[in-house]
Each structure stands twice: as structure tokens, then as C-alpha cells.
Amino acid sequence: PVHCGVAEYSRMLLKALRSLMPTVELFVLSTDEASSSEYVDPLTKTRVVPLYGYRDTSYYAIPSFLEEIGGVDIVHLQHEYGIYGYSVSILSALEEVWEKKLAKAIVVTLHTVHHPYSGRPGALEFQSALNNSFIDAVIVHSKLQEFELQMQGVNPSRIIRIPHGTLINPYLGLSRIKLAEELGLDLASFRGMILSIPGFMRPDKGFDILLEAVGGLKSLTILVAGEAKDPRLKELLEDSPNTVVLDQYLSKSKMLKLIALSDAVVLPYRDRPGAYAVSGVLHLAMGSFKPIIGTRVPRLIELYDNAPQMTITPGNSVELRKKLVWLLENYEHAMMYMEKMYSYAVGTEWHTVARKHLQLYVKLAKKQQ
After folding, report:
1. What is the rounded distance in angstroms from the CA atom of residue 199 to the CA atom of residue 249?
2. Tens digits of per-residue pLDDT, 247-284?
3. What is d(CA 206, CA 279) in angstroms, rounded to the nearest whole number?
4. How many domains in the chain?
5. Would the CA dihedral through 240, 304, 286, 114 be positive or negative?
6. Helices marked H in 175-230 — which ranges?
7. Which of 161, 167, 193, 235 has an alpha carbon 20 to 30 Å from 92's alpha carbon atom?
8. In which domain, by residue range, is 110 found?
9. CA 319 to CA 310: how far, in whole Å?
């Protein structure tokens, strides 16, 4: 229920699971940031039950609630350090679920995996604890995450790699005029090729590198859209002559419309040292079948794997400028280079990803019987 990538991921997964299992009972046990009252999510027909606070020190409300409802088949933790901190408290609650036999199987999706060089010993302690016998499976999204957990001693047979899901953009057939109207943008203020960089406005998104790269290029417009996390960054972007800034939290539908309006997506990310994750924005972009230029960072490993010609060195504004100029002159070639990426997008549609989850749930539940 909170504005964040893990919440959006969970909602899309639940929606796809619901389409596969129309009658199954689904619960989301969440933080109380968005609401302190239980409600039913209309999209997924899921009971959302706020039980604990953001980065709480105790999560024993989870086994207590499961006792009240008589237990469940699967408990699946969508873990992000930004939500649960570096404590193993959430795992202690899952251990109680296991001890009291309140679930047939316990699954953890680790959205971020930390390398020892990250300087976050709490994360390494948490990752080591994933070897506990009460955890049946650990899901990760990339091969980098999978191998890092193996190197840290997590049992390889417990690690399951399931890609992040992809939504095929339903707004690609709308005209630019219609899309601009629905986004509240003045299409007349755009010139040349439209390059978008969607998502939260944070320094790690590489906006400074992008602004250096596009300086003096008059045949394109940079469309920056998302909730500003840094006022100085927002001011820097607004002062750029060929940049349009849409400062607001973007719902999934708005982000898809934004990408549909664009000619290409540029992701000049710089990753935190030692943190392995994948980009949800990348999956929205690839499901829109537009050229994507991105940096060679762990977060964009899927772009590097499937369209290496469209990647650049992190932090290199000169290389990014050359790639943008090349894109302006070779758009059709860029589309050809992206073909494998588009096939990957179709292969990771949410219903396919949900089916892989469901197959895992069934396998684990049968194993515990």
C-alpha cells in the first residue's frame, strides 16, 4: 500500500496470481504507513492487514494473526532492507510461524543482495540467516544475486531465480496528443526526440551525467517524471533548457503513458557499492518496446545481457552523449539491437512470473505434507 518499488511489485504479482487462482484467499500483512485499518485491495481482491511499523523491532503480530485465522499454506516475505532494516527480527517472526506450524512453507524474496564490500554487516548477517531450516526457498531476480548468495554460503538448492515481471504497455496505441493531455503536459513545448527518465528523482539515477551529456543538443527533449526526493536536484533539472520536469508520484498507469509518449528511455544509473538489485523501471520500459540506453550496473544486468550495444560505462557523460547522438541518427538500428530484449520482455510477462511462483508454492507445500 506504500509508494515504493516493492509495493508495486507485490501488487502486480498478486494481480497475476489472482488471475491464475480466482478463488484462493490472499492476505497482505503490511506496515501501517499507508493505513492502520484493514481493507480489501480492489485490483487484487486481497485483504490488506497492517500489522507492524516501518523498520519495526518486532514482527510477532504476524504469527499472532496467522494463529487467529488458522494458518495458511504459504508465507511469502517480500524483503527489502529499506523496509525491514538490517535486523533479523522479521526472520524471528517467521521462525515462530514455522515452530507453530502456521504455514506449510516459508518463502523469502530478497529484492536486494549485499556484497561483503557494501560495508553493511547487518545485511550479511541477515543473508547468512537465510540458511535456517525454517526457510524453504529464497527467490532472487538476477544471476548476480544468485551467485552472491552462493558465495556467502547460502545453500544453492534453496536459491530460486525468478525474473522481475514485465507488463506489456497497454497505452502504446494512443496518440501523443492524447497521452500528453492525460499527463497534463504541453506537447508544443517538446522539440525533437523525446527521451524519458521515469521514476523517483534521486541522485543515484545519474541526472547530473545526463544533463552534461545533452548540453547543446537541440534536437531532443528530456522528460523527467517522478516524485522528487532531492529539492536541489529538482531545481537543477528545472534550470536545464531542454528538460521538462513532472514532479509527482507516478502511478503505474501514468508511468506507462509517459513511456508510451517517449521515443526512447535513458537510464544513466549509478549503483550503490556492493548492492545487487534489478530495476522495475527497466521492466516497464522494455514492456513498452522502446529503445533503452542504460549504464552497465548490476541494476540493469538484464539490459547488458540482452542488448549490450545499448549500454554505456557508468558516470561517463562523453560516452552517453555519443550514444544519444548515435540514437538520433540510427533509431531503426537501435530497435534492431533491442529485439532480444523485447523477446525477454514477453517471456517475463507477469502471468508467466506468477505461474513460476505458483509452481514453487505447490512443490513446497507437497514436500512438507
Report:
1. 8
2. 677 788 888 999 999 999 999 998 888 899 999 999 99
3. 14
4. 2
5. negative
6. 176-183, 207-214
7. 161
8. 5-165+349-368
9. 11
